[in-house]
Design goal:
alpha/beta; 14 strands
């Protein structure tokens, strides 16, 4: 039986979605604006020159961007892969929304977002968080950058034991705590206990943000982040595959996004470590497997922080890794490279951007798929694996 590899380049959007203006994102273009900045010499920190992505450009990344915006940042006329530009219908531009819809399930509700004011959380919620943590209160209670808030409040947190609670423009409730003075398991237990109440409010994720260090100059978040996400409202591609008796290997934050539903096993780590895991999966995954991977550092380290050069470096690094994956594929394997939303590092604010995303099929011929839907990705994977598709999408295979 054939295998499928679904790889999400988190936040690598290719131009505003048709409804981008409704989200304040008309004119956003993650890939295009990064390429433009590189070409103008404005992204030379740790790299230089035009954005260099020969492998993905050769497969059709630039042509997918042309479908979305009319402009190809790479100018490759004869790509070797199938390429399309996908639009989502769910009313959001966050991680669960994008991934669920890529997996065949549009989100049928509006997420809850906390107001951008201080304090921003309901009193009953903060009281409960403090009670569970065994502290006299919480710290934060505001919108904040994760690195900034631990630098500002980390020392007080270590002295008082009060958890640092904050949010962002996403539908999230985040809790930062020191792995040693507070304890990693205590942090995870706190998030786990609060998750049902927040999920009932339609807050998408409760996120544990552990950190280490002795003071503002060396506080550093660790790789032990854990997302407690709302469960998808219907069976997803992961469930379809798992229920058909096939292995579903989750790489990165996939298991968290899907509340571990339909997942056989999980590996996590930095993007560099995840690339090692992906290479191992290509070498070892059994016939009929689905390997579902998310590479998050584009988004978490560079998009939200509006670091154009860092984002460009990450794109070029990822592109340079692709031959080690593609050259190992079997003749009947399917690889789909895509994204879940945009996060234009040249844009105002620090939020995701409502964008179309690339969909690139490697190993299935060449040509344009045109404008497609997120849900068509799940339908195509299901068709390739010869399992029933339970979603509204249509396959291009």
């Amino acid at each position: 039986m054939s295998r499928a590899f679904l790889i999400v380049m988190d936040s690598v959007g290719i131009g505003g979605a048709p409804d981008a203006a409704e989200f304040g994102d008309a004119g956003s273009n993650t890939l295009g604006h990064i390429a433009q900045a590189c070409a103008q010499g404005l992204a030379n920190d740790g790299r230089s020159g035009p954005l260099h992505m020969p492998n993905l450009a050769g497969l059709g990344l630039g042509q997918a961007a042309r479908l979305a915006t009319g402009a190809d940042p790479f100018g490759i006329d004869t790509p070797t892969g199938l390429f399309g530009a996908a639009t989502e219908v769910s009313p959001g531009k966050d991680t669960p929304t994008g991934h669920w819809e890529l997996a065949g399930v549009p989100v049928p509700w509006d997420w809850h977002y906390f107001p951008d004011e201080t304090p921003c959380f309901p009193t009953a919620l903060t009281k409960k968080a403090a009670e569970i943590a065994g502290s006299n209160g919480i710290l934060g209670n505001c919108h904040a950058s994760g690195t900034e808030i631990i630098a500002r409040l980390g020392v007080e947190h270590m002295k008082t034991g009060a958890p640092i609670c904050y949010t962002s423009a996403d539908s999230v409730f985040q809790i930062a705590a020191h792995e040693e003075s507070f304890g990693l398991e205590k942090l995870l237990d706190l998030c786990r206990a609060l998750a049902p109440e927040l999920h009932a409010m339609k807050v998408g994720r409760v996120i544990a943000r552990p950190f280490v260090g002795r003071g503002p100059d060396d506080f550093k978040r660790t790789a032990n982040r854990r997302d407690f996400a709302v469960a998808p409202p219907a069976p997803t591609l992961c469930d379809w595959t798992f229920d058909a008796g096939r292995p579903v290997h989750a790489i990165g934050k996939i298991s968290d996004i899907f509340s571990a539903q339909g997942i056989t096993d999980v590996v996590k780590g930095t993007d560099a470590e995840l690339m090692e895991h992906l290479e191992n999966a290509v070498k070892t995954a059994a016939d009929g497997s689905l390997v579902f991977a998310n590479f998050v550092e584009f988004d978490a380290l560079y998009g939200h922080r509006r670091d154009v050069a860092g984002y460009a470096r990450a794109l070029e690094w990822f592109d340079a890794q692709m031959p080690r994956i593609l050259n190992l594929l079997r003749s009947d394997d399917l690889v789909i490279l895509t994204a879940d939303h945009g996060n234009d590092p040249t844009w105002h604010g620090t939020d995701h951007t409502r964008e179309q995303v690339p969909v690139i099929y490697a190993g299935r011929g060449a040509g344009s798929l045109g404008k497609i839907g997120f849900v068509d990705v799940a339908a195509s994977v299901a068709a390739h694996l010869n399992i029933p598709s339970q979603g509204p999408g249509r396959s291009f295979l």
